[in-house]
Design goal:
The complex is a heterodimer of chains A (115) and B (149).
Chain A: H1 2-6, H2 11-39, H3 45-53, H4 55-83, H5 87-113
Helix pairs in contact in A: 2-4, 4-5
Chain B: H1 2-5, E1 12-17, E2 23-27, H2 43-74, H3 76-87, H4 89-116, H5 123-148
Antiparallel strand pairs in B: 1-2
Helix pairs in contact in B: 2-3, 2-4, 4-5
The chains are: A mainly alpha (115), B mainly alpha (149).
């Protein structure tokens, strides 16, 4: 009985949870990075590079980016399904969205790899 | 039968059956205002649509942010090039736009999280939290502008 209320694959519930968890991860990371930027008066390459050389900073940044991409997927998916009515157009946009998010992920991996 | 199908969207005052067996539905005449110039969205609706718009803007700016991050971390020369590039008035304006979208989306998102734990999820408190969202974002967008220039 309860199952039929939640739907077949529980997508809505998963989306809801993904959006919240990713939001909290991004909030913590952003507040950290913003306070670092505001408190460090003259930021130069040496300091900036050193910050991203730490293993924990790379891990936190990857965690942030993964959260961002999942968050963007749920958000943009919602916007597309609400405003783009023709199925084919919406499908194409969703495929492009997916491909863009995957490429953002690999791009950020390469950026952090190079530090 | 057709009119029965849209009963849920009407304000029904009473439904009764007459002696003859006719079903009578009494509905309230609701005032209609479809004048686009005088319709004003409630504040929570404005906060909601701006949350969506700022979210889409932030998504569109992801490649630019990644490009800037990549340049800033690749070499001291690239860092300086980027720094110079971003110091131009036009780029500062673009960065302010990005920060504004971020700040707004941040506070409207916090409002959503609070509503999940039942803070501000009623008509009155929701309206108040929507107003607080707008005021807080405006203050921090202003501060971000001062910080940039």
């Amino acid at each position: 009985m309860v199952k039929s209320v939640l739907g077949v694959n529980h997508q809505g519930l998963t989306d809801w949870l993904v959006q919240r968890v990713s939001a909290i991860v991004m909030t913590v990371y952003s507040l950290g990075l913003i306070s670092y930027l505001v408190m460090t008066q003259d930021i130069d390459y040496t300091r900036w590079h050193a910050l991203f050389s730490h293993g924990w900073m790379k891990l936190a940044t990857i965690l942030f980016i993964v959260s961002l991409l999942f968050h963007a997927w749920v958000g943009m998916w919602t916007v597309f399904t609400d405003y783009i009515k023709p199925f084919v157009l919406r499908f194409i946009l969703q495929v492009l969205l997916f491909l863009s998010l995957v490429s953002f992920f690999f791009a950020s991996l390469m950026i952090l790899w190079g530090v | 039968m057709r009119s029965l199908l849209c009963l849920p969207c009407l304000d029904i005052i009473s439904i009764f059956e007459t002696v003859k067996g006719n079903i009578v539905v009494v509905i309230k005449q609701r005032p209609k205002n479809l004048n686009l110039l005088t319709i004003r969205f409630p504040v929570p609706a404005i906060v909601s649509i701006l949350h969506r718009i700022s979210g889409v803007i932030l998504y569109l700016l992801i490649p630019l942010i990644l490009w800037a991050l990549s340049l800033s971390l690749s070499s001291p020369d690239d860092f300086d090039t980027l720094h110079q590039f971003l110091s131009s008035p036009l780029m500062k304006l673009l960065m302010w736009g990005f920060l504004s979208a971020f700040i707004y989306h941040f506070f409207a998102g916090i409002r959503h999280l609070l509503m999940d734990i039942h803070i501000g999820d009623e008509l009155k408190s929701g309206r108040l939290s929507a107003q607080i969202t707008i005021v807080l974002s405006a203050v921090f967008i202003l501060l971000a502008g001062i910080w940039l220039w």
